[in-house]
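User: My advisor, Dr. K., asked me to get a structural model of this assembly before our group meeting. I'm new to this, so sorry if the format is off. These are the inputs:
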Amino acid sequence: MISLRGLTRRFGDLVAVDHLSLDIAEGEIFGLVGPDGAGKTTTLRMIAGLVDPTEGEAVVAGFNAKTQTVQVRDRIGYMAQRFGLYGDLTVKENMRFYSDLFGMSAADRDALSPKLLDMTRMAPFVDRPAAKLSGGMKQKLALMCTLLHKPQVLLLDEPTNGVDPVSRRDFWVILHQLVADGLTLLLSTAYMDEAERCNRVGLMHQGRLLQCDTPQALRQSLASDCYAVETAHPRVERERLSKLPQVLSARPAGSALHVFLKPGTQPETVWNTSEQPVERIVPSLEDIFVATVERG
Amino acid sequence: MWKRIRVLVRKEFLQVLRNPRTRILLIVPPIMQLMIFGFAANLDIENARVAFFDRDNTPQSRALRAAFDASPYFEVTDDLDTEAQLQKVLDSGKVLAAIRILPGFARDLARNTEPAQVQVLVDGTNSNNASIVSGYANRLIAGFRQSGATPDLTQTRVWFNPELKSRYYFIPGVAMNILTIITMMLTALALVREREIGTMEQLMVSPLAPSELIIGKTLPFVAIGFLQFFLILTVAKLVFGVPVRGSIFLLILAVALYLLTTLGSGVLISTISKTQQQAVLSVFLYFMPVFMFSGFTFPVRNMPDAVRWIANINPQRYFIDILRGVFLKGSGIDVLWEPMAVLAGIGILVLGTSILRFHRQLD
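Assistant: The format is fine. Below is the predicted structure of the whole assembly, which you can bring to the meeting.
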């Protein structure tokens, strides 16, 4: 559904996105994960045709985002990080505006709007000005506005940024429903727990895609080499570990340190396991991300 | 294309009319400015207070005093006996002028050979008032002297505004001011707001083309501009009795041409402003010099050459000429085609530049 081939964007000397290649299948939920400035937003904007790539191409549903922008835009719903809603217009008026703007007929609109309102449980608030909605409700309204022209692909840029946990869970329930209806989803996020809900995740750092797989596979690939170690002096211990050649990374997680060792390394070569409690753990995506980045 | 523009225009009106602040902005300032310039900011002199220092004290000198008192322009408030008093009334600002009649006034008047001695002492702290007062006083004294003697050969008659009411002169200018500020401000704010709240990005991923966006965003303010203009026109005519001697269609055409420049400037300001505050400040930064060099208050012909050059590319300058021409002189297209052509030229240039800039910024 989405196919990126060597997608690159430079802003002066800065390479925001560096030769990104990726295929996303229909009905997939794909998460781009990475810290701020990793190039996630620029990638999404290139797919939406808002920024032209310096090199490479983005193809959506068979149309080139740069040269066939009109066709692409008919097929995508793009929700920017700060989705613009007209605060002085009501929920209903915002929805009507976006629907009309995409040239949807009144019949289409009247058929689709109640469904969306129902799904998001926003029906009681149709006459409320958008400015008076809570963060979670604004997010839902924004989502509805991007769905009103029946896109096949949804691009969401950090959709739940600044939304409370309950609303985030709600939001994800809706997203799963949409995918069940046949939508393809590409989203960016800085939240690792959110990334775990995706079918596949791409770890992005400094414009490059470091790794790309299902969350389970990513975890499995490093599972055997991740250990949690309890220590009274985490800083001293971290310092010591970082000097050892067989240690890939060590990072504090609560009162423990999560440590990645080079594949095949025995923990006994690092710790005196009889004295120090060392536990083999299944790493979180966060662990994997940090390890991947530190490994380069 | 037009369907999408209509959607945008509809939304724009919905927003402008829903927001109580913009609703007030549409009605209150125009009426307030009209009231201020129509009633309060009046350059006309009526019942100017003068003091009389009669050192001749003859029937003739007393007749001159009576003539001053009877005139609608003057009111004799003080009769003085000493030079010290004269000094005092002028110093204190109690009177705008003092009339001193020297001894021998009646005798010189009767002989009619040498000029009769009258001195008009004017308070020059407000130069505008001073020149008007001294002008009126001179005319009155000259008339008084001729009433007995041979009439003067020079006769002054003022056309178009015989009573020299400054209100007639100001109100077309006020119409221009309001039109400028409101349309420019609303256009700039409407565009900057879209960017500020992030809706511009959403509009850009919609099928809306940049040209459609510009038209959709400016068209509502063309309508609002005209609405305001008719509101001002009505108040000017009904409340202040400002004559509209020329063709109303010519006025409408002139307003349309002028709106090209204000909307263009509004779009231009939106491209250089990141926030709505910046846009408001930019509008005033633009407006002050343009207003000063328009000839609204200060005649352009008195300005230094360099400034006059700037004034020559000032759209307001041409617009106010047209307005005053149509309002007061009843001028037609035969005289006004030239400023109108210039206005159209400036308008197309400004709007064209701003649209180009706007396009570039979207990429």
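One thing worth pointing out at the meeting: The CA atoms of residues 4 and 150 of chain A lie 23 Å apart.

User: Perfect, thanks a lot.
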